[in-house]
Amino acid sequence: MTDATRTPRVALVHDWLTGMRGGEKVLEAVCELYPHASLFTLVHVPGSVSPAIERLAPRSSVLSSLPGIGRIYRHLLPLFPAVIEQFDLDEYDLVISTSHCAAKSVVRTGRARHVCYCFTPMRYVWDHRNAYFGPERLGAIGSGAIWPVLAWLARWDAGTSHRVDRYLADSQHVARRIRRYYNRKSAVIYPPVDTDFYRPDATVPTPAALVVSALVPYKRIDVAIDACRQAGVPLRIVGQGPEEARLRAVAGPRVEFLGSCSDTDIRGLYREAGVVLLPGEEDFGIVPVEAQACGRPVVALARGGALETVVDGVTGVLVASDTPDALADGIRRALESPFDTGVIRRHAESFGRTRFATQLQSAIGETLSAPPGEASW
């Protein structure tokens, strides 16, 4: 592929850069490993991500020039396939995509190797199609009109899966979906959590709940609001998104919307919280691990990535149903249980950044050194 004595030229590809969520924290760690890489993205809102990412001077598509793109980019989903294929990656020997939408479908040269760290196959057209585009969201006519477009996007997503030599999944849950939708194998490397930064202190927690999340449909923040009302527990919500107005309309006086917060502020909120909530099904869910790194128990839906990050009865409570009743019961049990902060913390330490860096570089090294025809899983 490349001369063994030459350092490969590296291109990083991420779907969009509009804020520091879980995916961007993974990208941040990759950027630190490859500080001389070129970074490509569909949409970049300058100043919205960390200095480690901004330092690579992200190259964005024509979509970034649209007025108000930071608010409307989710509505441009049907354009993403055509736009992602326009990036010119001819000069690169290694492509690393961090993808939950279209980034994995970039076109690279035949000599280059492509490793995809996959957060999930395109959730908008597979598992969460109804949550984003069902009749309850768009009405019967609107939902019916967009359904053929979503079916086409699903075919495109599956049809371009061969553009990746090796898939790395962020959880066993996602690895199963990669197998189901792409018919590809993948190795699991859990996302990195900065356990040096997220750690306990002397703060005494209060009997209150915390949600840290993008305010989008599949996160089920409405369930958290209803559950806290039933449990008689105040709730703080950190995050922004298209669901904010609807959520504010159903929230009562004991729900506080804090908007976007700095990592330092979020760490303080974790430390203060009696319990941190994960009411929806997550691919992995970095928030529960950050909370546990701060010694705080998590109440989460017993599906998806939470089954791999929360130990029921030891580091939190897993609830079987995605109903407010079930979550409220979990909140009560968590607040009444004598969780051991040290045990919770030690569990979170297994998701640290050093482990991630070692495993990622090992997987990439194996892919680069594999003979032609054997790099693809």
Account of the 3D structure:
- The protein is of the alpha/beta class and 377 residues long.
- The chain folds into two domains: 10-192 and 353-369, Rossmann fold, CATH 3.40.50; 209-349, Rossmann fold (3-Layer(aba) Sandwich), CATH 3.40.50.2000.
- Helices cover 38% and strands 16% of the residues.
- The protein has helices spanning 22-33, 51-54, 69-72, 80-84, 129-133, 135-159, 172-182, 221-231, 244-250, 263-272, 286-293, 306-309, 324-336, 341-349, 353-369; strands at 10-17, 38-44, 59-60, 94-99, 113-118, 166-169, 186-188, 209-212, 235-238, 255-259, 275-278, 298-301, 316-319.
- The strands form two sheets. A seven-stranded parallel sheet has the order 3-2-1-4-5-6-7, with helices on both faces. A six-stranded parallel sheet has the order 10-9-8-11-12-13, sandwiched between helices.
- The longest helix has 25 residues, at 135-159.
- The mean pLDDT is 93.
Question: Unreliable runs, pLDDT <50, ≥5 residues?
Answer: none
Specify the overall morphology: globular
Please report the total strand number as a whole number: 13
Mean pLDDT: 93
Give me the CATH fold name of the largest domain: Rossmann fold
Major β-sheet profile: 7 strands, parallel
CATH architecture of the largest domain: 3-Layer(aba) Sandwich
Q: Tell me the strand order in the biggest sheet.
A: 3-2-1-4-5-6-7
Structural class: alpha/beta
Q: Over the alpha carbons, how many angstroms does the gyration radius reach?
A: 21 Å
CATH class of the largest domain: Alpha Beta
Could you give the order of the helices and strands? EHEHEHHEEHHEHEEHEHEHEHEHEHHH
| Helix count, DSSP H or I runs of 4 or more residues | 15
Q: What share of the residues does DSSP label as strand, in percent?
A: 15-25%
Distance between the termini: 17 Å
Helix content: 25-40%
Q: Total domains, how many?
A: 2
